Amino acid sequence: MKSVLIKNAKIVNEGQIIKGDVLIEGDRIAEISSTISMKSADTKIIDADECYLLPGMIDDQVHFREPGLTHKATIETESKAAVAGGITSFIEMPNTNPQATTIELLEEKFEIAAKTSWANYSFMFGGTNDNLDEILKVDPKKVAGLKLFLGSSTGNMLVDDPKTLENIFSKTKLLISAHCEDEATIKTNLAAHQAQYGDDIPMECHPIIRSEEACYISSSSAIKLAEKTGARLHVFHVSTEKETHLFSNKKPLAEKKITAEVCIHHLWFSDEDYKTKGSKIKWNPAVKTKNDRDGLLKALLDDRIDVIATDHAPHTLEEKTNNYSNAPSGGPLVQHALVALLEMHHKGKISLEKIVEKTAHNPAILFQIKDRGFIREGYKADLVLVDLNSPRTVKKENILYKCGWSPFEGITFKSRVTHTLINGTVVYENSKFPNKGKAERLTFNR
């Protein structure tokens, strides 16, 4: 059995930071102690030299574009970028081509990941107006959950029939994750802007078109339906301060029936950045005001918002450089999510303990992921070492996304990921990928 011994680490886990060693045997954490002696001559020693050891990020919302959209990204390319960024597990969305709206199509995606993924993986099953029978076949122990687009979707994945929605909320045992934007409000706003500007709408109008009102109408409606039916609802990428008041911190996460996520871009950018970043920060929901950004961070810190994710959604630079009407929404983030959060830590906005809670512990609790998300003896060894004092500038030559660009280009982050371990195997070490390792399908304690 292969073993790895991490020495002299500052271990960030479960609300505290302790200095110590971690022994990994096979794919699991065997021992955590202040000092551990080498067990055998072939043990790989990693001297952390007082770098910080974190449980790997679990990103609960990514779009890796495979199958069907592989000119933008693949499971292999994006999961490799993810492990370089300290993400050890991901949950991918169903709006690929074809869409994962049948059991057969969902399993085809699992088969691709089993062959090519660098990180542990699961996939959301996609809901439509007419696939309730398929939804009810999904095994909650083997699939992360159900994704419902209540606004802004592709193909036939916009679920906008009220009776269908209530049926799904009432009958599924799956955790429901929802994209909440009111389509009617957005269409009205868009028509008004098209009448004024044609297709050349200024990018700064994006948060006015995909407005606070559109988000709040949809989020509040989904929450009311969940309360009525008893469904387990997780609201993706909350983007407004107003929406944060829909969520509560009065119960521990494990007891909550309604939870929320915030994404890196909504914590980092504001509408002032459209002037310089343009379509590179065009996301759905839109990046909004400084007040929204500050309100999201406040709700994250006081536990109304439960997890941080990326909503990694790459497009080619050629696609993104179109005018407003033709530039798709979304951007690549998995490689730079953790270092962006560490930069926020350097600025005094968030503690290391809270970063770990929101990116590793809480996703594991919220999705009931088995044996991951914590640095605990007996748990899978999904670990990340970070050096908080090793600056690196994001440049084209060090970007790993297939699309080849990042909204963070030109930014120098003070921290960097030095090592990433997936199931006990060092897959990333000082900007190199020494081993592919064996990524695993996530399983769930449900």
UniProtKB/TrEMBL annotation:
Q: Which UniProt keywords apply?
A: Hydrolase, Metal-binding
Protein name, as recorded: Dihydroorotase
The task this protein performs is described as:
Catalyzes the reversible cyclization of carbamoyl aspartate to dihydroorotate.
What does the record give as the organism's lineage? Bacteria, Pseudomonadati, Bacteroidota, Flavobacteriia, Flavobacteriales
**Would you identify the family this protein belongs to, as annotated?**
Belongs to the metallo-dependent hydrolases superfamily. DHOase family. Class I DHOase subfamily.
The family database entries (PANTHER family) matched by this protein are listed as: ALLANTOINASE (PTHR43668:SF4)
Q: Which GO terms describe its biological process?
A: purine nucleobase catabolic process
- The Amidohydrolase-related domain is annotated at 52-427
> Which InterPro entries does the annotation name?
Amidohydro-rel, DHOase/Allantoinase_Hydrolase, Dihydroorotase_CS, Metal-dep_hydrolase_composite, Metal_Hydrolase
Gene Ontology MF terms in the entry: allantoinase activity; metal ion binding
> Which cofactor is essential here?
Zn(2+)
What are its GO cellular component terms?
Answer: cytoplasm
